[in-house]
Amino acid sequence: MPAQPLPDPGVAPPLTGLVLTGGGARAAYQVGVLQAISDLRRQCEPNNHANPFPVMTGTSAGAINAAALACGADQFDRSVRRLARVWSHFHPHNVYRSDSISMLRSGASWLSLLSLGWVVARWHRLRPRSLLDNGPLLQLLQQLVPLIRLPLLMRQGHLHALAITASSYSSGEHITFFEAGDRLVPWVRTQRRSIRDEIRHEHLLASSAIPFIFPAQGIDIDGATEYFGDGSMRQSAPIAPAIHLGAERILVIGAGRMRESGSDPTAAPSSGYPSLAQIAGHALSNIFLDALWVDVERMQRINKTLSLIPAQARTNSALKPLELLVIAPSQRLDAIATRHVDRLPVALRTLLGTIGVSSKKQEVRSAALASYLLFEEHYTQELMALGRADVAARRDEVLAFFGWRLSPDRSGAPSQIQPDHLGMPPPDE
Question: Are 236 and 174 in contact (CB under 8 A)?
Answer without folding.
Answer: yes
